[in-house]
Amino acid sequence: MSTSEQGVIAVAGGTGGLGRHIVEELVEDCKYKVVVLSRTPNPSLTALGVDVRPIDYTSHTSIVKALENVHTLISCIAAGGDALADVQIKLLRAAEAAGVKRFAPSEWASDTQINTNIEGYFPKKAVIEELQKSKLEWTLFMNGVFMNYLASPRGTGHLQPLKFVIDTENRTANIPGTGNEPVVMTTVQDVAKFVVGSLSLPSWPEKSGIIGDLTTYNHVVKAAERITGEKFKVEYRSLEQLNKAIHPDAQSIMENFYTQVCIAIAEGAKGGFVFEGTLNKLLPHIKTVSVDEFLAHWWTPSGIGKSK
Ligand SMILES: NC(=O)c1ccc[n+]([C@@H]2O[C@H](COP(=O)([O-])OP(=O)(O)OC[C@H]3O[C@@H](n4cnc5c(N)ncnc54)[C@H](OP(=O)(O)O)[C@@H]3O)[C@@H](O)[C@H]2O)c1
Question: Taking every annotated instance into account, which residue ranges of this chain make up the domain NmrA-like (predicted)?
Fold first, then answer.
């Protein structure tokens, strides 16, 4: 299929953290007409030339109308709990009705088909089950942990700042497992490049693994210590300790979310945060930022990001 036939790309949740990076990369790439589906107007995206189409997830007709002429729909929605499945399944039904060809659901982390224990990802699995029954072509983008969190709070781009495992600013680390388990980390900017690159692939693989850097948390700490010139206060939480930290009576599936992600990381390959770099192989011209490069950019005392 030619690029002109794939001309209209819609990003649901394109106003958010990851979505906005993908939208900006699409705008810079200039090959496609860019549509954002949003529940509210977004003048800053409109000013970039993006067609921001209003969407009411309670109305099938409204979603079908918003998807008019769209070839590929990329979901970057991050609704809490069951709403994540609910709105995406509505999007999927409307996409089928509107004649959309390709759909990428909101995955963007681990291989949710391998990992069965992160409750916050259960709604993502429900969407995959519906996709498997549909006639749409689909792919699951997986990128591991966003590397940008290593530069929280300043280097997270449009993402909400988050100090996850490593708090580079305060030189501390709370590492799941032994710290030697492999984990994929990718900058959100590199994810956006791969997503845009994948649009011109003649067919989509079911799993679109993106590897910015295949690393370990022990490596990250060593690199951060070398680059900042300061020793980190490092603590480890064993799988046993992490499992004990799970609240059995959690009020919401998000209450145990970060602990369950840490368990998945501590489980290594079984946890799903390591996977094949399918898109790295299919799009070898895209060069990724490594953990060492990223940390040096943000935390070298005299560097662009400056350490303090
Ligand atoms: N791998 C990682 O380290 C990592 C980290 C963070 C997130 N993620 C994943 O990346 C994806 C995007 O996350 P994000 O942090 O970029 O998201 P976000 O900025 O929090 O939200 C993205 C968009 O979701 C839409 N949204 C929120 N609640 C909604 C609802 N109830 N119904 C419909 N739309 C709703 C909003 O769009 P409108 O208001 O414009 O409609 C919002 O802009 C998610 O799948 C998330 O799990 C991965």
Answer: 7-253
